[in-house]
Design brief:
The structure is a single chain. By secondary structure, this protein is α+β, with helices and mostly antiparallel strands. The protein is 59% helix and 6% strand. It is built from 14 helices and 6 strands. It has helices spanning 20-48, 63-81, 90-102, 108-131, 136-184, 193-203, 254-261, 278-293, 309-315, 318-328, 337-353, 357-364, 368-382, 389-405; strands spanning 211-218, 234-236, 243-247, 266-269, 273-274, 302-304. Strands 1, 2, 3, 4, 5 and 6 form a 6-stranded mixed sheet that branches. The radius of gyration is 38 Å and the shape is rod-shaped. The two termini are 72 Å apart.
Length: 415
């Protein structure tokens, strides 16, 4: 179905065939009645939609009245000049759409109001057309032109509505970012942080949860679209590594929804903590991401720190663990790299199993006699220290850390 053409632009137009004298007479009468027609239309609008606010312009006149009257005048002037299409007055009608957007309403009622205005205007124009004897076919074209003109008004309002929506979204993101900055700050400057947090959360409509988990994300691509996290999850994409705050992370269904939303992303989500300790959850998420980037934790997905506690504890204080390893593993210094690694793997398997040669051999996948030989060497190297519980704990600590780093082989697990 082709769109209706205005009388001025149609190639074969009944309106175009109306004598210019009659057209000018019609336009003069319509222009003279435009103020009264605008008042009638606004009166009907207020009767049908009493909840609509009355916004006044600088002169104190209702903006709606100004817009309706101006729209009528532009349309009538176009009928008389028949030059191009009528130019829709953008200011007022964009403002109408902007107002609907800022007040959180849809454009449905606004479009219904516009249609009402066209119907009332057509009724008045039909009366004028009868007075000056405009042929019915030409008046039918006038109806089509009116609705085409209406489409232009709606387009202007849609533009204003979109501008308002974008402005609100930008303002919400700004307020949300300020909320996250306060929430994730380790040290708060002056005042009551709880009070400030409550105030900022209220401004974005974010109910304060009891617990949160903080995530740090790695972008799959620089131009990647933000993940469609569920409502209530705070997300800040302005960071090189985007951050998010997940309220009540253990709530029913939350992990599944989050997993689906983050498909294609990688990163880490820190442990659930009380709201006041959100910065601690961020600390662990950042630590996990660093390990992911080094290849020490699995990439390709958003992992949960609570599932990688051992790695995070043993691989984070590198300087301390490395210093402890130098002291604890000093007896292996002259064993040679390959033999020293085998002794270390055997020692770790023995410390983990607390078993005899058969159990350790099964864990390592070697012959028990080989294990007995290595265990004798270990006792010779460490002497009585190997029986000290504190020293055994330190040895297991550093050897587990080395295994996590990949410098020790993974022992076979018993079925």
């Amino acid at each position: 179905m082709t769109p209706a053409r205005s009388p001025a632009t149609a190639t074969l137009s009944a309106w175009h065939d109306v004598p210019r004298l009659q057209v000018r007479e019609f336009a003069a009468l319509a222009m003279a009645e435009a103020p009264a027609l605008a008042e009638e239309i606004l009166r009907e609008i207020r009767r049908e939609y009493p909840h609509l606010p009355v916004v006044l312009d600088e002169s104190g006149e209702p903006m709606a009245m100004v817009g309706i009257r101006r729209a009528i005048e532009v349309f009538v002037q176009h009928l008389e000049t028949s030059e191009g299409r009528p130019t829709v007055p953008p200011g007022v009608f964009q403002e109408f759409g902007r107002g609907e957007g800022l007040h959180g309403r849809s454009l449905d009622s606004l479009q219904a109001i516009y249609r009402m205005g066209v119907r009332l205007a057509w009724r008045r124009f039909a009366e004028i057309g009868q007075r000056v004897e405009i042929p019915p076919p030409a008046m039918y074209e006038l109806v089509d032109a009116g609705y085409e003109y209406l489409d232009g008004l709606v387009d202007q309002s849609v533009r204003g509505y979109a501008e308002a929506a974008a402005r609100q979204a930008g303002e919400r993101l700004r307020l949300q970012r300020r909320l996250m900055e306060l929430l994730l700050a380790e040290h708060h400057r002056g005042g009551d942080p709880a009070e400030a947090l409550t105030e900022r959360a209220a401004r974005v409509g974010w109910p304060l949860p009891r617990k949160v988990a903080v995530g740090v994300l790695l972008r799959p691509a620089r131009e990647a679209v933000a993940p469609a996290v569920s409502e209530g999850v705070l997300l800040d994409m302005e960071y090189e590594q985007p951050r998010m705050v997940v309220p009540e992370p253990d709530a029913a269904g939350r992990p599944e929804l989050l997993h689906r939303a983050l498909t294609g992303w990688s990163g880490a989500i820190g442990p659930p903590v009380p709201l006041a300790d959100a910065a601690k959850s961020l600390h662990w998420a950042e630590a996990a991401v660093r390990l992911v980037e080094r290849g020490l934790l699995p990439a390709g997905d958003v992992l949960h720190c609570t599932e990688h506690t051992e790695a995070l504890i043993l691989l984070q204080p590198e300087e301390l663990i490395d210093d402890l390893a130098l002291r604890c593993l000093a007896p292996l210094a002259h064993s040679g790299p390959t033999h020293g690694r085998r002794l270390a793997e055997t020692l770790l398997a023995w410390l983990e199993t607390r078993g005899g040669a058969p159990e350790v051999a099964a864990r390592l996948g070697v012959h028990p006699q080989t294990v007995r030989y290595r265990l004798r060497q270990i006792r010779e190297l460490w002497g009585d220290e190997i029986d000290d519980p504190d020293r055994r704990f330190e040895l297991e600590l550093v050897l587990r850390a080395q295994r996590l780093r990949g410098t020790l082989g993974e022992a076979r697990r018993a079925p």
